[in-house]
């Protein structure tokens, strides 16, 4: 979730939130398994969005992911993914920034 919040653009989409967020009575939660199973067939994604979601979801649901996906991320999204991987490894001091 931190990676989606940091990236900002994808989570700002209503169709993404509709697929990810579930309201059940007074409880609101992210249904990651449902999102992971359906995002490719429900959402219209460009190549960069698909690559970003694939890599981010792979941190939550470990799987083999082709590394060529990073080619279409762009610097900003690559930085988000790298910081997420560093957090997953327990490192909070990595500085991956985007050049101005």
Topology:
Blueprint: H1 2-7, H2 14-20, E1 21-24, E2 27-30, H3 32-42, H4 47-60, H5 74-88
Antiparallel strand pairs: 1-2
Helix pairs in contact: 4-5
Task: Write a structural description.
It is globular and about 40 Å long. Helix 4 runs parallel beside helix 5. It contains 5 helices and 2 strands. The two termini are 26 Å apart. It has helices at 2-7, 14-20, 32-42, 47-60, 74-88; strands spanning 21-24, 27-30. Strand 1 (21-24) and strand 2 form a beta hairpin. It has 100 residues and is mainly α. Strands 1-2 form a two-stranded antiparallel sheet.
What would you call the shape? globular
Q: Mind telling me the C-alpha Rg? A: 14 Å
Biggest beta sheet attributes? 2 strands, antiparallel
Described by its quaternary structure, the protein is: single chain
Strand content is 5-15%
Structural class: mainly alpha
Number of strands: 2
Segments where pLDDT lies below 50 for 5+ residues? none
User: Roughly how many Å apart are the termini?
Assistant: 26 Å
Number of helices: 5
Strand numbers in spatial order across the main sheet: 1-2
Helicity range: 40-55%
Average pLDDT rating: 84
Order of helices and strands: HHEEHHH
């Amino acid at each position: 979730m931190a990676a989606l919040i940091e990236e900002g653009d994808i989570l700002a989409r209503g169709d993404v939130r509709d697929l990810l967020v579930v309201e059940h009575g007074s409880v609101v939660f992210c249904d990651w398994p449902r999102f992971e199973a359906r995002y490719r067939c429900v959402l219209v994604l460009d190549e960069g969005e698909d690559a970003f979601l694939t890599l981010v979801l792979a941190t939550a649901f470990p799987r083999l992911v082709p590394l060529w996906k990073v080619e279409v991320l762009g610097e900003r999204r690559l930085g988000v993914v790298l910081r997420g991987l560093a957090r997953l490894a327990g490192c909070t001091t990595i500085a991956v920034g985007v050049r101005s």
